[in-house]
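Tokens as discussed.
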């Protein structure tokens, strides 16, 4: 018996492994973006720093440093977007050559029909496509943020100065959220590759990926540094 949304060509273990992967992806994203107030994630902490950055931006002159920062964010987003496009192209080419998929299964001593292997590759491509869309939107939002930043008055006494800075900060936060979603999709695309070996490998890879992401957001040294109050509180 398979899950309702799983093709009948997959067995029960494959269905379970796929469900674990999708659940891990969704739960990780929800936990990172909606953490408890008592223990914010790195993404939430960085959102506060982004607001602080744009408020400091009002009084900074010249603003070359800020222009360089927003440009580096756009370049990083464009790099990941182009990487996803290349990976998607490679996956589509692999699906188009079923003999290579069957040869791969034989090399791994696996018993799987070509259509099942194609579904496994399509899963990886689906995650990469999701990541690509997130990166493209993040790139556009960082562009919007740059324009909003250019519209922020350089006079802190201007009534629109801090209001526009807050608007730019909010768009910057939206862009970062989309960028982080793209990164998580890439992480789980890598986990999805474990399905080529088998459902057990997919379950293990999904759990490891979720644990790594949760640890980096809630128990990493970088998070401790961000939360440190004063030089005496800095972690060793």
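Sequence:
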């Amino acid at each position: 018996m398979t899950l309702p949304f799983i093709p009948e060509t997959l067995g029960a273990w494959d269905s379970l492994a796929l469900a674990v992967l999708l659940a891990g992806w969704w739960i990780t994203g929800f936990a990172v973006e909606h953490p408890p107030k008592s223990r914010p994630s790195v993404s939430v902490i960085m959102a506060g720093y982004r607001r602080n950055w744009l408020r400091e931006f009002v009084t900074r002159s010249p603003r070359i440093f800020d222009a360089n920062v927003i440009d580096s964010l756009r370049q990083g987003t464009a790099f990941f977007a182009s990487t996803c496009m290349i990976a998607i192209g490679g996956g589509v080419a692999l699906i188009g050559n079923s003999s290579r998929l069957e040869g791969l299964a034989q090399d791994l001593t696996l018993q799987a029909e070509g259509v099942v292997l194609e579904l496994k590759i399509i899963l990886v491509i689906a995650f990469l496509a999701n990541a690509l869309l997130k990166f493209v939107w993040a790139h556009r939002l960082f562009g919007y943020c740059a324009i909003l930043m250019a519209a922020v008055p350089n006079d802190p006494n201007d009534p629109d100065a801090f209001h526009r800075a807050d608007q730019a900060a909010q768009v910057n936060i939206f862009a970062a959220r989309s960028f982080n979603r793209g990164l998580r999709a890439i992480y789980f695309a890598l986990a999805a590759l474990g399905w080529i070996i088998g459902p057990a490998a997919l379950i293990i890879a999904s759990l490891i990926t979720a644990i790594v992401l949760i640890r980096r957001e809630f128990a990493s040294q970088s998070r401790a540094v961000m939360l440190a109050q004063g030089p005496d509180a800095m972690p060793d």
